[in-house]
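Reminder to self: tokens first, then the designed residues, so the page reads top to bottom the way the pipeline ran.
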């Protein structure tokens, strides 16, 4: 069912249109009315009608001005012009705005019916097109995953540089160097989360589960230094506290990536994993910070992931003291962030006698902290999200990454990534690309060359710009330019 709005300052004509439309047997859910363009904008912003019939000459704001504002917000809204004047005077501007027809006053039932049928057909066609585009994007995502897998195996089977690059070209990746991370103790869902965070940091991830571990190649379009690689390793370990992340040597040629993998794997085999040793103070403090991050955004899977390094031990009682210490560090972090001290006397009174009691203490502690955080976490998360959005909107034309934004806001990259996904339903990369393409559309309308537009809005590659433009707008930049 669709909504329609009549914008007409003459009450007799407005009431006539409403009566006619309500009498027609068409799938219209509601008939909204406004007496001028300004009131029409207010109603549009509140109810988002699918069809608008607007008079041209009205006080305060005329119909064409209102339609122009509506079309900026919602290009798919179907608009008609209502006028008793010779419409040729307004035809050029109306067509430019996307008005699909004129209704001459006094309007008759047949003319109104014909126009509305035309509008409903157009809306249905657009819905079908969007559904097809959605299915196509789903197929493309599946295809991309298959291409990523092929790229991974071309690296792992000692293919030469040309063959590896041919596979990468299908993903629009031009890599100058890369490094392998071998991550033990994660599952396939966590693998995709890590890959998303690596991508948001400005690198191209090629990854796969191998031998019950994640093997992830971070590819870069510039030469990486050791500090940069160490920072990426820290981001991974921060995101997946229970993992053991080993890193191989930097590969300056694509065919050397296999050697980076061999280095990382060898390191992983030689290391003493976390489940075989007691964690030190620094590790417990880091665990506490991440634990509080997960409680703040109510990420149950994340909470389980944080507690897993301790609770997965065979002898849970042996590690009960470490859990209590981690909880103490969590409370210190709560005081540091919010300047409050939750009542935690039950921790001092508890004597852990068996694993069942240990698990009950964990549950009670989580419930207690979540009650405390409930009153403050929303405000803090919204504050950080708005700060992140403001920073991104002010800097998206520059080569920003998840890391640079997180550092500017003094928050962790993994927290920022989850915050953006939870509040905006998009990843950091999607958010930045949407802003860039919005600006690109403006510059294309101004007649600026595509290569210059790509550079102006922060893309280093014109081919990648074209790929992202097509993904977001549904057509190539050249096709978009031809619309004007």
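Designed residues (484 positions):
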């Amino acid at each position: 069912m669709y909504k329609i709005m009549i914008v007409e300052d003459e009450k007799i004509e407005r009431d006539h249109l409403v009566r006619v439309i309500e009498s027609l047997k068409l799938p219209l859910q509601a008939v909204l009315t406004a007496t001028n363009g300004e009131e029409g904008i207010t109603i549009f912003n509140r109810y988002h009608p699918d069809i608008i019939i607007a008079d041209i000459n009205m006080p305060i704001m005329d119909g064409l001005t209102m339609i122009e504002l509506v079309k900026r917000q919602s290009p798919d809204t179907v608009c008609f012009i209502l006028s008793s004047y010779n419409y040729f005077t307004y035809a050029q501007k109306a067509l430019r705005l996307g008005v699909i027809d004129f209704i001459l006053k006094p309007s008759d039932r047949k003319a109104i019916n014909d126009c509305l049928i035309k509008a409903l057909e157009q809306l249905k066609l657009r819905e079908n097109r969007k559904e097809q585009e959605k299915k196509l994007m789903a197929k493309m995502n599946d295809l991309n995953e298959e291409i990523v897998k092929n790229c991974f195996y071309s690296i792992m089977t000692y293919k030469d540089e040309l063959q590896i690059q041919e596979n990468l070209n299908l993903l629009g990746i031009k890599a100058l160097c890369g490094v392998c991370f071998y991550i033990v103790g994660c599952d396939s869902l966590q693998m995709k989360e890590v890959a998303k965070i690596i991508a948001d940091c400005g690198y191209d991830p090629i990854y796969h589960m191998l031998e019950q571990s994640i093997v992830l190649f971070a590819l870069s379009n510039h030469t990486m230094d050791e500090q940069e690689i160490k920072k990426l390793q820290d981001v991974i370990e921060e995101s997946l506290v229970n993992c053991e992340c080993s890193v191989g040597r930097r590969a300056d040629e694509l065919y050397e990536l296999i050697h980076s993998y061999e280095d990382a794997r060898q390191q992983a085999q030689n290391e003493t994993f976390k489940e075989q040793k007691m964690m030190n103070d620094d590790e417990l403090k880091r665990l506490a910070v991440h634990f509080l991050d997960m409680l703040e955004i109510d990420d149950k899977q994340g909470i389980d992931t944080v507690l897993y390094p301790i609770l997965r031990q065979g002898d849970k009682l042996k590690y009960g003291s470490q859990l209590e210490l981690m909880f103490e560090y969590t409370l210190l972090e709560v005081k540091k962030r919010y300047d409050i001290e939750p009542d935690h006397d039950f921790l001092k009174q508890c004597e852990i006698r068996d694993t069942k009691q240990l698990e009950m203490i964990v549950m009670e502690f989580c419930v207690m902290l979540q009650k405390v955080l409930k009153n403050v976490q929303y405000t803090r998360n919204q504050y950080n999200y708005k700060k992140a959005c403001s920073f991104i909107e002010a800097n998206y034309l520059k080569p920003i990454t998840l890391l640079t934004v997180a550092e500017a806001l003094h928050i962790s990259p993994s927290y920022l990534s989850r915050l953006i996904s939870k509040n905006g339903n998009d990843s950091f990369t999607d958010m930045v690309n949407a802003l860039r393409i919005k600006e690109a559309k403006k510059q294309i309308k101004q007649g600026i060359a595509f290569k210059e537009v790509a550079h102006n809005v922060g893309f280093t590659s014109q081919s990648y710009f074209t790929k992202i433009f097509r993904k977001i707008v549904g057509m190539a930049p050249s096709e978009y330019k031809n619309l004007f």
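The mean pLDDT is 81.
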